[in-house]
Amino acid sequence: MLISPLRYSGGKSRLYKQIKQYFPKDKNIMIDLFFGGGSIGLNWLNENPEHNLLANDINKALINFWEKVRDVEKDKWLKMSEIVNDYESTKNHFNNPRLNLNAIDFLIKNKCSFNPLNEVGTWSDRAFKENFNKSTFERIIKCKELLQRATITCEDYHFNHCYENSFYYLDPPYFIENAKKLYKFGDFNHYELAKNLKEISSLIGSSIQWVLSINDCKEIRELYKDFNIYEIETIYTSSNTKSNKCKKIKELIITNFKES
Length: 260
Description:
alpha/beta
């Protein structure tokens, strides 16, 4: 199992083996519209050496990081890895990032912050000690190799890209009532997404196939009641505190096709 170099809430690395069972078997291009930490798309590339990926996310700083992972020379990444042994330099990068967060600053913000998805964030000595190490850069090098087979885009989710032998994978923010700013660049509209998925599925002669992973709730079940809904189980680790044990929760996998 390939682990993302980023800390990413909602990452699906633990669920990959379950989710992949619902992918179409005859497609060799994944269009990952909410790439995020990359756990699904990267593991798919890792398992399928002849396959390709379109990785998209609306977060410009995040996409800039992934582009640099793919494009910056391996030797430069290895050189940058030396910073993990330098507490003062790492903290200086954290507190004084260059304009628009270059790749190393973005990585440090992600690995050494109390909140890994907050580009402002608060420095955490504990996060630095526990998360920022040589294995981070080993994972980057592995991802670099895989992303040579990827096109990377920074757009809102869309269905404009459709290649022969491709399918869409969607991992949008969870549907949680009254939650604010779940989607970093504005509240995410699940009703609009469901409407769009229904529209592309109903087009005459459409061969577009999609797989959606999302939290289990009555609103989602109602929105996608006309499609195939499957349940999988996962462990919710953020509840693992002194007063709360890890708990099992259900995740839904929804598709607009069934394997023959």
